[in-house]
């Protein structure tokens, strides 16, 4: 007995060592040429090691990842986030810049080094500026045991398909134009196309009488999409890495950052091929240009000689599966009344610089001077005081193992997909779509709400227009976790908050290595001190980063549009009178603008970008017409 036990132990240890692999990946970022929609070739798509699309990364549960990311850009910082991974014990590997790390400066390499303890479909993407919209994103698939042996459903083969929108312009140009006083309504840039697996009209070759496991991932940064198939169904079995009771549906709706793993059974007969359709949720677009194709047709091909199917239309998009009623396979009752409740109101509005920002409770997220995780490690006992994280970061400190409830009231008329790092949460309540017409309806806890017995758990969930959701989770993962709208434009506008979960356990159980510190040092960014980089007095926030001042009372986006145009119109009017006296009647605005030194294109561009969220289209067009007549 004394002899055997150590032997047995050794065998056990050896067998775990054998099964857990280490994946070492070396990637360097850089710009590549790519033309995924077949319409326009860009030379500034972000590739890794000169390649785009980026590789699908795969691992088994329990494997170790060592990803060396070298920043090969000359002028831009970068970072990498594994979306959906809990990073339990490895918060510094989570990726968002100035939350858990300093960005990686040009020429530097950061090692992302962690163990994967989850299964399912995830993705990896840059968490710097709009880089993932420029292509720096791809799927990350974690199998349940080697060869996915522990996956709870039978299947023959696995596929992973991504969907996304696509722009012909780089985020380097899109962001400053979007975050500009010339875009006071915050109209989001309209994509030029929508991709399926980084192409258009994708062909999926299938065999008859098979069950395919398909991971569907929206790796976009803006619009949700609907997916449906001709004469085939999706059986949803996993959502954001959480197994669900099988749920058969004809249509799926996927917001950006969400993942659905479905089983698709193929037919026995191979006489024809079928359409696999995608369609964007065009209610999320401010304007729909005439030439924008909202539908995409992809092909399920059984028989290459049988010809390709036509587009397959449906009468209504309302038949999509409502993820709110999905039930996790591993049941978990709704958490009882929370220990700590965070109530946030989402709104979009202008500040004094005329730019349109996004707010949680009137605060738009402004990055601190020190990465939040750096503040946690340097603040000692003060780390439990939310003040040290700054007054403009929307920071909340959570205590160990508390049940947290986030009540989110959406005062905006748009849909927003919210993502929490470090957790899946229970979706306890989601209010209906109140559309554009009514006034927003906030969550009212005293009303009866139909709370599911075994609520859906996921890491990204949308809130309906002018409505609300309530999510709950247990603070059992010490770390600094970002919670934000996954629409890139809205994150740029500051629609984010920061949860600092059990900071004293972070201090005692985790650490920051030299490679992590080097990213800050090379960037000349401090990594100790409070949000203002004060290391003496953590409660002194002098010189912290803060948001732009509020607009003087009474100014609205429409007011700014009106002001800008009446000023221009006023100047043009005076010039017109002057010119009228000097020349024959010439009221051509092109001529006027030339005489004024105003770029005529500027006038027209600004005009067309004013089409706003809330139907101020008419006013704007009228102003523009008046201006041009
Ligand atoms: Cu997909 Cu903050 O991330």
Automatic annotation (TrEMBL):
<dbReference type="GO" id="GO:0010106">
    <property type="term" value="P:cellular response to iron ion starvation"/>
</dbReference>
<comment type="similarity">
    <text>Belongs to the multicopper oxidase family.</text>
</comment>
<keyword id="KW-0408">Iron</keyword>
<dbReference type="InterPro" id="IPR011706">
    <property type="entry name" value="Cu-oxidase_C"/>
</dbReference>
<dbReference type="InterPro" id="IPR002355">
    <property type="entry name" value="Cu_oxidase_Cu_BS"/>
</dbReference>
<keyword id="KW-1003">Cell membrane</keyword>
<feature type="region of interest" description="Disordered">
    <location>
        <begin position="606"/>
        <end position="629"/>
    </location>
</feature>
<dbReference type="GO" id="GO:0005507">
    <property type="term" value="F:copper ion binding"/>
</dbReference>
<dbReference type="Pfam" id="PF07732">
    <property type="entry name" value="Cu-oxidase_3"/>
</dbReference>
<dbReference type="InterPro" id="IPR044130">
    <property type="entry name" value="CuRO_2_Fet3-like"/>
</dbReference>
<dbReference type="InterPro" id="IPR033138">
    <property type="entry name" value="Cu_oxidase_CS"/>
</dbReference>
<dbReference type="InterPro" id="IPR008972">
    <property type="entry name" value="Cupredoxin"/>
</dbReference>
<dbReference type="InterPro" id="IPR011707">
    <property type="entry name" value="Cu-oxidase-like_N"/>
</dbReference>
<feature type="domain" description="Plastocyanin-like">
    <location>
        <begin position="365"/>
        <end position="503"/>
    </location>
</feature>
<dbReference type="GO" id="GO:0004322">
    <property type="term" value="F:ferroxidase activity"/>
</dbReference>
<keyword id="KW-0560">Oxidoreductase</keyword>
<keyword id="KW-0406">Ion transport</keyword>
<feature type="domain" description="Plastocyanin-like">
    <location>
        <begin position="157"/>
        <end position="304"/>
    </location>
</feature>
<keyword id="KW-0479">Metal-binding</keyword>
<keyword id="KW-0677">Repeat</keyword>
<keyword id="KW-0472">Membrane</keyword>
<feature type="domain" description="Plastocyanin-like">
    <location>
        <begin position="35"/>
        <end position="145"/>
    </location>
</feature>
<dbReference type="Pfam" id="PF00394">
    <property type="entry name" value="Cu-oxidase"/>
</dbReference>
<keyword id="KW-1133">Transmembrane helix</keyword>
<keyword id="KW-0812">Transmembrane</keyword>
<dbReference type="GO" id="GO:0033573">
    <property type="term" value="C:high-affinity iron permease complex"/>
</dbReference>
<keyword id="KW-0410">Iron transport</keyword>
<feature type="compositionally biased region" description="Basic and acidic residues">
    <location>
        <begin position="615"/>
        <end position="629"/>
    </location>
</feature>
<dbReference type="GO" id="GO:0046688">
    <property type="term" value="P:response to copper ion"/>
</dbReference>
<feature type="transmembrane region" description="Helical">
    <location>
        <begin position="560"/>
        <end position="583"/>
    </location>
</feature>
<dbReference type="InterPro" id="IPR045087">
    <property type="entry name" value="Cu-oxidase_fam"/>
</dbReference>
<keyword id="KW-0325">Glycoprotein</keyword>
<dbReference type="GO" id="GO:0005381">
    <property type="term" value="F:iron ion transmembrane transporter activity"/>
</dbReference>
<dbReference type="GO" id="GO:0033215">
    <property type="term" value="P:reductive iron assimilation"/>
</dbReference>
<feature type="signal peptide">
    <location>
        <begin position="1"/>
        <end position="20"/>
    </location>
</feature>
<dbReference type="Pfam" id="PF07731">
    <property type="entry name" value="Cu-oxidase_2"/>
</dbReference>
<keyword id="KW-0813">Transport</keyword>
<protein>
    <submittedName>
        <fullName>Ferro-O2-oxidoreductase</fullName>
    </submittedName>
</protein>
<dbReference type="InterPro" id="IPR001117">
    <property type="entry name" value="Cu-oxidase_2nd"/>
</dbReference>
<dbReference type="GO" id="GO:0006878">
    <property type="term" value="P:intracellular copper ion homeostasis"/>
</dbReference>
<keyword id="KW-0186">Copper</keyword>
<keyword id="KW-0732">Signal</keyword>
């Amino acid at each position: 007995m004394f002899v055997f036990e150590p032997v047995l132990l050794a065998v056990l240890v050896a067998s775990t060592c054998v099964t857990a692999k280490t994946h070492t990946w070396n990637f360097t970022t850089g710009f590549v040429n790519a033309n995924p929609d077949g319409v326009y070739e860009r030379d500034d798509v972000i590739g890794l090691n000169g390649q785009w699309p980026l590789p699908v990364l795969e691992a088994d549960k329990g494997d170790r990842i060592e990803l060396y990311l070298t920043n090969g850009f000359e002028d831009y910082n970068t970072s990498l986030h594994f979306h959906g991974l809990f990073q339990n014990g490895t918060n510094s590997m989570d990726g968002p810049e100035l939350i858990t790390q300093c960005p990686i400066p040009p020429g530097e390499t950061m090692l992302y080094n962690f163990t994967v303890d989850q299964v399912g479909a995830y993705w990896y993407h840059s968490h710097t500026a709009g880089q993932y919209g420029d292509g720096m994103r791809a799927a990350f698939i974690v199998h349940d045991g080697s060869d996915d042996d522990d996956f709870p459903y039978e299947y023959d083969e696995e596929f992973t398909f991504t969907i996304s929108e696509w722009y012909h312009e780089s985020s380097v140009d899109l962001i400053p134009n979007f975050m500009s006083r010339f875009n006071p309504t915050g109209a989001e840039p309209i994509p030029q196309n929508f991709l399926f697996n980084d192409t258009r009209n994708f062909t999926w070759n299938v065999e008859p009488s098979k069950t395919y496991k398909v991971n569907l991932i929206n790796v976009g940064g803006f619009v949700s999409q609907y997916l449906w198939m001709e004469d085939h169904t999706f059986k949803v079995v996993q959502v954001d890495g959480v197994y669900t009771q099988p749920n058969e549906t004809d249509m799926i709706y996927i917001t950006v950052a969400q993942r659905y793993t479905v089983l698709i059974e193929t037919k026995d007969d191979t006489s024809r091929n079928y359409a696999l359709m995608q369609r964007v949720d065009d209610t999320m677009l401010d304007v729909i240009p005439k030439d924008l194709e909202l539908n995409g047709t992809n092909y399920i091909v059984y028989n290459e000689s049988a010809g390709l199917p036509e587009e397959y239309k449906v009468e209504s998009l309302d038949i999509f599966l409502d993820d709110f009623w999905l039930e996790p396979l591993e049941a978990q009752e709704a958490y009882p009344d929370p220990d700590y409740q965070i109530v946030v109101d989402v709104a979009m509005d202008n500040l004094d610089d005329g730019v349109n920002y996004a707010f949680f409770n009137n605060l738009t997220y402004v990055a601190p001077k020190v990465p939040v995780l750096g503040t946690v490690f340097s603040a000692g006992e003060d780390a439990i005081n939310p003040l040290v994280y700054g007054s403009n970061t929307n920071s909340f400190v959570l205590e160990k193992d508390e049940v947290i409830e986030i009540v989110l009231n959406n005062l905006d008329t748009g849909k927003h997909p919210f993502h929490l790092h470090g957790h899946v949460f229970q979706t306890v309540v989601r209010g209906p779509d109140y559309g554009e017409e009514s006034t927003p309806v906030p969550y009212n806890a005293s009303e009866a709400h139909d709370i599911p017995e075994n609520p859906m758990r996921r890491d990204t969930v949308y809130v309906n227009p002018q409505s609300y959701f309530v999510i709950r989770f247990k603070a059992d993962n010490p770390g600094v976790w970002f919670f934000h709208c996954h629409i890139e434009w809205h994150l740029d506008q500051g629609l984010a908050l920061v949860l600092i979960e059990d900071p004293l356990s972070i201090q005692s159980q985790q650490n920051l290595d030299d490679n992590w510190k080097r990213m800050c040092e090379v960037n000349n960014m401090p990594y100790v001190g409070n949000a203002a980089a004060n290391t003496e007095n953590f409660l002194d926030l002098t010189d912290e980063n803060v948001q732009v001042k509020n607009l003087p009372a009474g100014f609205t986006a429409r007011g700014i549009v009106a002001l800008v145009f009446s000023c221009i119109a006023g100047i043009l009017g005076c010039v017109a009178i002057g010119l009228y006296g000097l020349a024959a009647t010439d009221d051509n605005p092109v001529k006027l603008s030339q005489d004024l030194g105003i770029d005529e294109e500027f006038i027209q561009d600004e005009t067309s970008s004013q089409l706003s969220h809330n139907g101020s289209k008419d006013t704007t067009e009228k102003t523009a017409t008046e201006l041009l007549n």
